[in-house]
């Protein structure tokens, strides 16, 4: 069951990247403005990071390791993401100051905010509660739980 869940998370995070691109830019016709592309870029990057983590977690469970491989990379990505959020925000602000219509930047702003939520969900606390066990735990404790990646990062930080 756990392996199937991890595989599902790994695959769906990757599938969501082209799916969102098609839905937003193709079906809904959002303009490919610099603000929208920057927001989509940081959003896609976060989904790719999440997918990579779930693939590594799947491999760890198959091999019986204590933590997934690559935690040092995720430790660096945690800070790179914050810099990218600031850069994306600056790019959107510059576009708006230079006369970009709000409606041409709204998708980028929304995707940038969604990327920040994904970052929190992966690197800090679990925001997504899509299975009954997660919902029951949230209702019972009335507080979010540390994300799997945050726990794995903490385990590797304590290693000698």
From TrEMBL:
Q: Membrane among the record's keywords? A: yes
Q: Tell me the superkingdom of the source.
A: Bacteria
**Annotated transmembrane regions:** 7-31, 37-56, 76-96, 102-123
Keyword vocabulary terms for this entry: Membrane, Transmembrane, Transmembrane helix
Q: What is this protein called?
A: Multidrug transporter
């Amino acid at each position: 069951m756990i392996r199937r869940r991890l595989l599902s998370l790994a695959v769906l995070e990757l599938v969501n990247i082209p799916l969102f691109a098609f839905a937003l830019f193709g079906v809904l016709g959002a303009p490919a403005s610099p603000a929208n592309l920057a927001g989509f870029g940081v959003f896609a990057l976060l989904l790719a990071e999440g997918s990579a983590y779930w693939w590594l977690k799947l491999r760890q469970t198959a091999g019986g390791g204590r933590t997934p491989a690559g935690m040092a990379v995720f430790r660096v990505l945690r800070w790179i993401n914050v810099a990218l959020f600031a850069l994306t925000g600056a790019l959107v602000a510059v576009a708006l100051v230079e006369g970009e219509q709000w409606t041409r930047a709204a998708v980028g702003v929304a995707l940038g905010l969604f990327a920040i939520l994904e970052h929190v969900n992966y690197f800090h606390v679990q925001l997504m509660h899509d299975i009954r066990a997660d919902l029951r735990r949230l209702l019972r404790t009335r507080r979010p739980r540390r994300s799997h990646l945050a726990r794995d990062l903490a385990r590797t930080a304590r290693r000698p």
